[in-house]
Amino acid sequence: ARQNAEFGTSTLYCALASYAAANQRNEEFNEWIADAVKWCAHRRGGSGVIDLRTALPAGEGGGETQTWVELLVKALQGASGKEPGSIAREDVVRSLCLLGGWCSSNGLAPLAREILDQAQARAGAVGEHYLWLADLARMAGDTARATQLETTLLKEDALPVPRVAALLDEIEAHDGAETADSLAQRVAGYSDLPEALQRAAREAERQGDETAARTYRARLQALSAASAVPPQGPSNAR
């Protein structure tokens, strides 16, 4: 119930801001957005993503819409800090990424890239919020930056395994198979992802480490054997 109340209140503030924007009331727009940000920050103790997208008009963005987005960005950045009532750095990054994604989907691609730059500049230490940056980079058409961000996470053993195979393919296309295979060995240290094991075995062979290569191949064979075993249903025996 408490979460629903928080959602309802923040949604109300954003709805009022949207109404103000539709009627060209810039000062009121700023006031409602400031209230939304402050309310969320205080109620959540400075943690949690603040989604201000509902304060924006639907449809393709124009010059006026860009102004509203820039005001939202300014409000989020102004709320960042460590003192009571402020928003944690990582959540400001996540909240900015939501706005950047909205821009990418509403005809404001250049502004989306600007927001990406600002969010990344605030990112600080590597963490889960880097995934938000990578996703926004892909939406904004900056595949190279998305690859770089996810590679940073991979090197910290913080990239979700479901993202690894596609990333290794991207690294191979850009930097060559040896670089991708070397990184795969790191992943193979904590995951049985088949694509990582295949690459790790190839890298071990390249390095002349047949023992490691056999170990990786044995793990692959074990995965293959396990997947070939038909699922066991309930017995019909009486």
User: Residue ranges: pLDDT <50 for 5 or more in a row?
Assistant: 1-7
The biggest beta sheet reads:
none
How would the global form be characterised?
A: elongated
DSSP, total strands: 0
What structural class do helix, strand and pairing data support?
A: mainly alpha
How many individual helices? 11
What's the mean pLDDT score? 88
User: Hey, roughly how much beta strand do the residues contain?
Assistant: under 5%
Describe what you observe in this structure.
The protein contains eleven helices and no strands. It has helices at residues 2-22, 26-43, 63-78, 89-105, 109-121, 129-139, 143-155, 164-175, 177-188, 194-206, 210-228. Helix 5 (109-121) packs antiparallel against helix 6 (129-139) and helix 10 packs antiparallel against helix 11 (210-228). The chain starts with a helix and ends in a 10-residue tail after the last helix.
Strands, helices and their partners?
Elements: H1 2-22, H2 26-43, H3 63-78, H4 89-105, H5 109-121, H6 129-139, H7 143-155, H8 164-175, H9 177-188, H10 194-206, H11 210-228
Condensed summary:
The chain contains eleven helices and no strands. Helix 6 runs antiparallel to helix 7 and helix 8 packs antiparallel against helix 9.
